Amino acid sequence: MPTDKVYLVGFMGAGKSTLARRLGARLDWRVEDVDERIEAREGRSVAAIFASQGEPYFRQLERRVLLDLLPLRHVVVATGGGTFADPDNRVLINRDGLSVWLDVPLAGIVERLPADGRRPLATDRAQFERLYDARRTAYEQAHVHLDAGDRAVDALVEQLLDRLEA
Ligand code: S3P
């Protein structure tokens, strides 16, 4: 698989955007964030898109953004928590670059997620936990499994740099 592009995948609140920025800075690669691109394209927040047009519409936008990113090289992409859960997106991502799963235990995710209403799928705790369990089989299909529970971002960056140089 190409190693001139990294896709960070994993559940909401796993730290994908933070790690993407840090890794991008170390590699001197461009950093792209799928949710930010969706918001810029639509001129409104993810929560507003979910509220007014629903999840299926959001998923279409997510696919379009992913397709737009395909030609870019030397990029670290922070995906949204649901991006890699879609089988077609998974195929696109795994062909296009190195996919890295930031695996954080549920307790860690709950601790990190702000209750600011910005994540529509995190408002119902029971649904959130079901989603966490259901998505693991999808995330397991990433090329690299990073145990990101209690490790500092710097350590994760170093681990990924080693992997990219190997
Ligand atoms: C989602 C995760 C969010 C965002 C949207 C849907 C999901 O991204 O794309 O709220 O389905 O898990 P983060 O993983 O950046 O929170």
Please give the domain count.
1
- Spell out which ligands are present: shikimate-3-phosphate
- Please list the strands of the largest sheet in the order they lie side by side: 2-3-1-4-5
The residue fraction in helices comes out at 40-55%
CATH topology: Rossmann fold
Distance between the termini: 13 Å
SS-based structural class?
A: alpha/beta
Let me know the CATH homologous superfamily: P-loop containing nucleotide triphosphate hydrolases
Low-confidence runs (pLDDT<50, min 5 residues)? none
Shape: globular
Question: How would a textbook summarize the main sheet?
Answer: 5 strands, parallel
CATH class: Alpha Beta
Architecture, CATH level 2? Answer: 3-Layer(aba) Sandwich
Q: Your description of this structure?
A:
The protein is an alpha/beta fold and 166 residues long. It has a single domain, classed as Rossmann fold. It is 54% helix and 14% strand. It contains 7 helices and 5 strands, in the order βαβααβαβααβα. It has a 5-stranded parallel β-sheet, with helices on both faces. α1 (16-27) crosses α7 (153-165). It starts with a strand and ends with a helix. The mean pLDDT is 95. The structure holds shikimate-3-phosphate. The site of shikimate-3-phosphate has 9 residues, from loops.
